[in-house]
Structure formats: C-alpha cells, structure tokens
Specification:
alpha+beta; disordered N terminus; single chain; 4-stranded antiparallel β-sheet
C-alpha cells in the first residue's frame, strides 16, 4: 500500500505541474531540439489560423537581426526555438523598426495577429 500511495502522490504532483504549465499565459514550450517542426536555433511562424499546422512552419528565421514579413495577416503562432537565451520581437515597421513589441523568450510561443507586423527581430542575448 505504501508504494501505491507514493506513486499516487507523484502522479498527483505531476498532474498539478501539468495544469500549472498549461495555465501560463506565455505558452511555455520546450526549447531543446526541433519543436513543432521548428528547428533548434530558429524562430518559426506557422500559417494563419492553422495552429501548429501538423508541425510544419511556413517561415523559419535563423540569423540575428530583422526579418521582413510579406503577406502575413491574421492570427499566427510564432515560436522562439533559439538557443543561448536569444529573444524575438515583433515590429510594426520593416527592418526591425517601428513599435517593436515584447521579448519572446526561448521555448515560448505566442498566438499573434500579424496584420500590423512587418518584421520579426531576432535579438542576441
């Protein structure tokens, strides 16, 4: 009976931890290796209103600096799967200008309206 109790307690603790992770507004994700088809070291954008799109991103950016977007409107998942603490920002202007919003941490994604967004800025730590 003692083993069952310990196992049940561990299971309850694990279930509580999963509930806590799922409840975070930042949408935590795992940053090591490929994640939802996004290669390690990249920031990926998924097609409009397609969620993870079967783990097939439509765009992947690898280098630090600004990456201009074309014809990206409506809701898209944007996933930061970079390593080493690099962040990503969405900007209303081309070439990383205008209103650059937030700092998307490695291992996190956001469901974002890209209609006013014209570039994604990958920021070196």
């Amino acid at each position: 009976m003692r083993k069952f109790t310990k196992a049940a307690a561990a299971l309850a603790l694990a279930a509580g931890a999963l509930t806590t992770v799922n409840a975070t507004s930042a949408n935590a994700a795992q940053a090591a290796g490929s994640l939802h088809g996004c290669p390690s070291g990249a920031v990926c954008v998924y097609p409009q209103n397609a969620g993870w799109n079967g783990d097939r991103p439509s765009l992947a950016f690898y280098s630090y600096g600004a990456h201009n977007l074309n014809n990206q409107v409506g809701q898209h998942y944007v996933l930061n799967n970079q390593t080493g603490g690099a962040t990503a920002r969405t900007c209303t202007g081309y070439n990383g200008t205008g209103d650059c919003q937030g700092y998307l941490q490695p291992g996190y994604y956001v469901d974002k309206n890209l209609t006013p967004i014209n570039s994604i800025l990958l920021v070196r730590p």
